[in-house]
Amino acid sequence: MNITKENIDNLNAVVKVEISAADYQEKVATILQDYRKTANVPGFRKGQVPMGMIKKQYGKSVMIDEVNKLLQESLNKFLTEEKLDILGNPLPKMQDDLNWDAEDYAFEFELGLAPEFDVKLDAKKKITQYNIIADDELLEKEVENIQKRYGKIIPKETVEDDVNIAGTFVNEEKEINKKSTISFDSIKGKSNQKKLKGAKVGDVIELKTKGLFDDDHKLMGALGIDHDAIHGLDIVVQFTIEEINMTELSEINQELFDKVFGPDVVKSKEELVAKIKEDAEKQFKTQADQQLLNDVTEYLVENTKFDLPAEFLKKWIAVAGENPMTPEQASEEYEKSEKGLRYQLIEGKVLKDNGIKLDYAELQEFAKGFVKAQMAQYGQLNPEEKELDDIVQRVLSNQDEAKRLQEQLVSKKLLDFYKENITFKVKELNYEKFVKEVYK
């Protein structure tokens, strides 16, 4: 057997695998002998069928199978030994004149080679690192939300300020039939408020969806429509009122503190506000970190220049899936995935060049923290170590879950690395301003 590689350019190569009869004949002969021992052919005793008959019936198919196995094994071994960094998988070049009656064969495979490049972390234009604070306005709203959550529900006869209205939104054309509870205070526009104010249970109110709420996401939840369909939606819906309630705010006292945080964890309004601030800013930090990682990713993709074997990758995409694609479909799919592929290569380069590794023990610890956080949400604050270990083992035995947690851990390691090695422009702002600035 002989394997050679010819570089077409820096990103494309062709591997040629030459297989001779001596490479596969012994294996084929052994398999045919086994066939002969078990073959049931009328007129012959078991194991006494002439080898010529066995060869005639099975010889070519066995030979083709063995050549293909040998071809795949030798190609994989060559790629490993040569330490070739390839993209996608080798693509066999079509051979219209392949003659399986010959004894020697030659096969060629196209390779797409990963580009060589450097990743520079010294950003000329500083990337913003957000420090989101919980300001007094947000904290006051959160205190009021807690008071509402644990307050007393009082039925009302008619719609007025500060009430919650439960009812059903209907629009037959858009197939909307959704039970929802809305706050009167979230209704936008004097004409809409006028239609609702004074209405009673059983009344059917016609409302236009455009500008109905102070936030399109509230409309999305109220109508049960997905994110893409809600923006710019301008239709008329019928809203049948089924319930009208007002929440009498709970008093701010020890009983409320204990309901929210457990006995004696919080003992004053000042401590309540401090706890809300701590919890909110912990969540804000997670969101700010994710935004920072997104911004660094975007910067690296935009500013790390290298070419890709685009034509090879389009050909590979066309045949890689369950259903073959046309060249046009493959080209479109490549355009969609190119940015993601670029970042995968950049991420791999950063990990390799800086010795950032991930071992199984780290993944176990990370999974344990994830499981503990999940259990805490359901009030299980101090699980036993054995119970925790058992759950972690079950989670990591699920291939999809293990992959997801591994990706999260890699992202965390990368974020820690970027924070240590990139100089950012730090910007402090409240959550409302953060949302406006980042999500426009």
Structural write-up:
The chain is an alpha+beta fold and 440 residues long. 51% of the residues lie in helices and 18% in strands. The protein has 14 helices and eleven strands. It has helices at residues 21-38, 51-81, 136-149, 190-196, 216-223, 227-230, 254-261, 269-303, 310-320, 327-353, 360-377, 385-397, 399-421, 431-439; strands at residues 2-7, 12-19, 86-92, 105-113, 128-133, 152-155, 163-171, 176-183, 204-208, 236-248, 425-430. Strands 6, 7, 8, 9 and 10 form a five-stranded antiparallel sheet that branches. The protein has a four-stranded antiparallel sheet with strand order 1-2-4-3, sandwiched between helices. The mean pLDDT is 92.
Helix content: 40-55%
Indicate the low-confidence ranges by residue numbers.
none
| Number of β-strand runs | 11
What is the radius of gyration? 33 Å
Strand content: 15-25%
* SS class: alpha+beta
Terminal Cα span: 62 Å
The number of distinct helices, counting runs of at least 4 residues, comes to 14
Order of helices and strands: EEHHEEEHEEEHEHHEHHHHHHHEH
Question: So what's the overall shape?
Answer: elongated
> What's the rounded overall pLDDT mean?
92
Largest sheet: 5 strands, antiparallel
Tell me the count of domains: 3
